[in-house]
């Protein structure tokens, strides 16, 4: 009977063992062997492929980024999961909130990558991140309304240092000054702009007009003089400069007219560069310096719900009498959380953190999809570099060495997790 049962057990296990050997054992063994051969696979390369792991610039960048991933992504995702689980435990709509936070887990990495590629788009009209960032920025530091304005033909203005414009000749009190500019689309003129008007002469004062010297329609309008359809540059700042010092300044009215005191007599008028500052376009989220933190943010968005669900399950099993006893002894909620809740949840937090660490070591999809070609080298990780070396650069030996190295990185984490689980079972 015993022998028969063993035979039947072996027959039932055989299909699983065949699949395990074909899909796991054989690829691992082949990768280990292939990592010691050169590009063609015919010549023995020894440990040269493993040396490339620490000498190749692309692989070194990938190693550095993987360290950032392992340190920050699991930590932040677990911390957010813990906060969400604790804060939603007592509220009536906590289940609905948990459902919303967990929903990203139902989205594939491919779909999440496409979503965040759009979220991080540089154009504030497309990218949500920059739309919010630009909105906050413009609330405190309004951009100029004339970023593309510049002198036209026969203009009395010339370019000065730093992006400003300066009159070619000094101005005189009592003689109105014309400061025509072009380059601002009519639909981008300030809402306070009115029809441009010639400035009246005032004794002892310098007056003038600055306006958009352009009328739609070929051959229409008078160059260098305000026409009925042309708008003044409302809010344009004008400075009077003598010997490199600003002696007076003012701001143009809605119709473009301005008035400077007698101190401006004999000075040159300057339109400072602040008038022409380009509109703030937000952060370059997918640029070389921010691309890795941006992608880590998208990963946390997906996996914080996973951490929250597991921690919430562990929190449900925490004895309530311990929490109540701590409150009766005079502990406030922060002390109860820090000294009772977190220690009791330590095993669950360890499981979540270790699981996420294993997951981020092999992250590929998000980096490959979100990072544009110009920044992919800066966002590189080991799994992506394995793909690039194996398929784009046709270096299967180095790709196999990267695969073996990744396996070696994952094994200690897995061993720690298995050992901890066995310890929990013994308890």
Folded structure, characterized:
It is a single chain. The chain is of the alpha+beta class and 427 residues long. It folds into 2 domains: 32-131 and 285-426, MetI-like (MetI-like fold), CATH 1.10.3720; 157-276, no CATH class. It is built from 13 helices and 8 strands. The chain has helices at 2-34, 48-55, 57-87, 94-102, 109-119, 128-140, 291-316, 320-328, 333-344, 346-361, 365-370, 382-392, 396-426, and strands spanning 157-159, 165-167, 177-181, 206-212, 237-242, 245-251, 257-260, 268-271. The strands form 2 sheets. A 5-stranded antiparallel sheet has the order 1-2-8-5-6, with no helix packed on it. The protein has a 3-stranded mixed sheet with strand order 3-4-7, with no helix packed on it. A hairpin with a 2-residue loop joins strand 5 and strand 6 (245-251). Helix 1 crosses helix 13. The radius of gyration is 34 Å and the shape is elongated.
Outline of the structure:
The protein has 427 residues and is of the alpha+beta class. It has helices spanning 2-34, 48-55, 57-87, 94-102, 109-119, 128-140, 291-316, 320-328, 333-344, 346-361, 365-370, 382-392, 396-426, and strands at 157-159, 165-167, 177-181, 206-212, 237-242, 245-251, 257-260, 268-271.
Please render the helix and strand layout as text.
Blueprint: H1 2-34, H2 48-55, H3 57-87, H4 94-102, H5 109-119, H6 128-140, E1 157-159, E2 165-167, E3 177-181, E4 206-212, E5 237-242, E6 245-251, E7 257-260, E8 268-271, H7 291-316, H8 320-328, H9 333-344, H10 346-361, H11 365-370, H12 382-392, H13 396-426
Parallel strand pairs: 3-4
Antiparallel strand pairs: 1-2, 2-8, 4-7, 5-6, 5-8
Helix pairs in contact: 1-13, 2-13, 3-7, 3-10, 3-12, 4-7, 7-10, 8-9, 10-13, 12-13
């Amino acid at each position: 009977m015993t022998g028969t049962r063993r035979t039947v057990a072996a027959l039932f296990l055989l299909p699983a063992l065949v699949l395990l050997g074909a899909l796991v054992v054989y690829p691992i063994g082949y990768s280990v062997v292939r990592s010691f051969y050169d590009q063609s696979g015919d010549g023995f390369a020894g440990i040269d492929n493993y040396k490339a792991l620490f000498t190749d610039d692309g692989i070194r960048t990938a190693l550095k980024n993987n360290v950032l991933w392992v340190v920050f992504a699991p930590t932040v995702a677990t911390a957010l999961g813990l906060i969400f689980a604790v804060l939603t435990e007592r509220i009536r709509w906590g289940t609905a909130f948990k459902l919303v936070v967990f929903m990203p887990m139902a989205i594939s990495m491919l779909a999440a990558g496409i979503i965040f590629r759009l979220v991080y788009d540089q154009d504030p009209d497309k990218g949500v991140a920059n739309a919010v960032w630009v909105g906050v920025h413009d609330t405190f530091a309004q951009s100029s309304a004339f970023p593309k304005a510049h002198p036209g033909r026969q203009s009395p203005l010339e370019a000065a240092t730093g992006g400003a414009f300066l009159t070619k000749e000094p101005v005189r009190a009592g003689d109105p000054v014309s400061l025509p500019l072009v380059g601002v689309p009519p639909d981008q003129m300030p809402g306070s702009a009115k029809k441009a008007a010639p400035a009246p002469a005032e004794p002892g004062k310098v007056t003038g007009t600055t306006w958009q010297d352009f009328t739609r329609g070929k051959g229409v309008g008078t160059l260098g003089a305000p026409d009925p359809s042309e708008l003044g540059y409302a809010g344009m700042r004008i400075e009077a400069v003598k010997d490199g010092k600003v002696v007076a300044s003012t701001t143009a009215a809605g119709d473009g007219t301005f008035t400077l005191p007698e101190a401006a007599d004999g000075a040159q008028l300057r339109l400072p560069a602040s008038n022409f500052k380009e509109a703030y376009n937000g952060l370059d989220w997918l640029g070389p310096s921010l691309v890795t933190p941006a992608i880590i943010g998208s990963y946390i968005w997906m996996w914080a719900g996973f951490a929250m669900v597991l921690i919430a399950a562990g929190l449900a099993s925490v004895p309530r009498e311990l929490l109540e006893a701590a409150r009766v002894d005079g502990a406030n909620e922060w002390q109860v959380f820090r000294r009772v809740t977190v220690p009791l949840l330590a095993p669950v937090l360890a499981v979540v953190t270790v699981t996420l660490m294993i997951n981020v070591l092999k992250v590929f999809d998000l980096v490959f999809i979100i990072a544009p070609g110009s920044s992919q080298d800066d966002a590189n990780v080991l799994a992506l570099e394995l793909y690039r070396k194996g398929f784009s650069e046709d270096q299967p030996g180095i790709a196999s060495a990267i695969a073996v190295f990744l396996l070696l990185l994952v094994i200690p984490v897995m061993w720690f997790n298995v050992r901890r689980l066995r310890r929990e079972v013994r308890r």
